């Protein structure tokens, strides 16, 4: 069943809006957007020991809390993974885990397995005072990063070629359309305009440019 499949629409899902369903494999799923067989985004909650099964589609995974064992390594909170579907890679929750997962098709040429443990990561200064950035991945038209906003940071008004997707990991992200507390998911369409800021400060997972591509991953 399709969900928020019209990418010309601005979509916000705050923590209180999440709808969870139980999975046969264990754990529960909160779907955020879906075009069946093409792309899917959502939160996945796994109890300790539950499997993250191999999938035919490529997956982009952000570990929001807990840990996942993949490839003989335990990946902890904040880790970012790109898992090609044709490699048959599966995993298992080391302890109770909350994952943000996107499935689809990676651009050709960017389909390699990638794992980044971000604990203790060094952020680089951003385009305005108070903003710092830790790049995660760039490929095709898409760019993915963590962006940290110090309290009181204001960014200039701008548009996003290829759209923008944000997951607020801590604090509160804001723009002229509203305030988005930790746990909020935000998707804005191609060439959307906004004037973002953060009064209390925040850490966000940001993906831009990918809504020009044929998949969401």
Structure description:
This protein is mainly beta and 217 residues long. It folds into 2 domains: 11-116, Jelly Rolls (Sandwich), CATH 2.60.120.10; 124-212, Sandwich (Jelly Rolls). The protein has no helices and 21 strands. The protein has strands spanning 11-13, 21-22, 28-35, 39-46, 51-52, 58-70, 73-75, 80-83, 91-104, 114-116, 124-125, 131-139, 142-149, 153-154, 158-160, 164-175, 178-181, 185-188, 192-194, 197-198, 202-208. The strands form 4 sheets. Strands 2, 3, 4, 5, 6, 7, 8, 9 and 10 form a 9-stranded antiparallel sheet that branches. Strand 2 (21-22) and strand 3 form a beta hairpin. It is globular. The mean pLDDT is 92.
How is the secondary structure organized here?
Elements (H helix, E strand, L loop, with lengths): L10 E3 L7 E2 L5 E8 L3 E8 L4 E2 L5 E13 L2 E3 L4 E4 L7 E14 L9 E3 L7 E2 L5 E9 L2 E8 L3 E2 L3 E3 L3 E12 L2 E4 L3 E4 L3 E3 L2 E2 L3 E7 L9
Antiparallel strand pairs: 1-18, 2-3, 3-4, 4-9, 5-9, 6-7, 6-8, 6-9, 8-10, 11-12, 12-13, 13-21, 14-20, 15-19, 16-17, 16-18, 16-21
Number of strands: 21
Q: Which of globular, elongated, flat, extended, rod-shaped describes the shape?
A: globular
Summed over residues and divided by their number, the pLDDT gives a mean of: 92
Helix content: under 10%
CATH architecture assignment of the largest domain: Sandwich
> Which fold name fills CATH's third level, the topology of the largest domain?
Jelly Rolls
Distance between the termini: 18 Å
Q: Strand percentage, roughly?
A: over 45%
Number of helices: 0
Q: Major sheet, described briefly?
A: 9 strands, antiparallel
Query: How many structural domains in the coordinates?
Result: 2
| CATH class (first level) name of the largest domain | Mainly Beta
Low-confidence blocks of residues: none
The radius of gyration over CA amounts to: 17 Å
Task: Assign the CATH superfamily of the largest domain.
Answer: Jelly Rolls
**Pairing-aware structural class of the strands and helices?**
mainly beta
